[in-house]
Amino acid sequence: MARDGAQTAERILQVAHQLFMERGFNGVSIKDVVQQVGISKPTLYYHYANKEALYVAMAHQVLTQMGAEMSAAIAEIDGSFAQLLCGVIEMIQSRNAEDTRMLRHEIRTYLSPQWQAQLAEQFYRTMMGPLVAVMGQGLANKQIAGGTAAELAMMFLCFVEAFSGPEGAAIQMHIDATRMTDLFLYGVSYQKEQHHGSDFTKLA
User: Fold this and answer.
1) Pair 81, 169 in one domain
2) 7 lies in which domain range?
3) Phi-psi region of 98 (alpha: psi -120 to 50; beta: other; left: phi over 0)
4) How high is the mean pLDDT in each 10-residue block of the chain (204 residues)?
């Protein structure tokens, strides 16, 4: 029975994940979820107290998985700083269906303060933490400059998300990982080409 209960909870979460990411918090009702799962409302409420609790569980799962994939992408690359950034970008692009900007917006808009604080801490730990470490190494090795590791990590993530999510796809502004890395490292100044192809040393 315990296993059946765990499987039901996971199925609820899978369906909720799909619906929330497609429609947003306000666009999904408990009725929508139970109908697609094929269960009763009391069964759902046995596992998740309300829609907010279900959304929190979904957000927790998304952030945990994306953070693990981010860390794995960073650990697998033994190359230049630019290659490392490319690998992270490709990992984010591979999950274009996950609009994490929308997720973070809805967390701030619809969830109670205690859940906002908990998920914000998780976002920093699982997604920002690995990027901050990468930028910290880049700063230490003088491969980048112009801000703190945390500032550069947030700048990088926001920049990548702008061209990788549904909004970029909708207006056909897909930019590949190499081009995005160049833009992040060199900017858009006329003199950028003078620096293109610089020999980045490997991360220590």
Assistant:
1) yes
2) 1-48
3) beta
4) 79 96 94 97 97 97 92 91 93 78 91 96 93 96 94 93 64 75 85 49 44
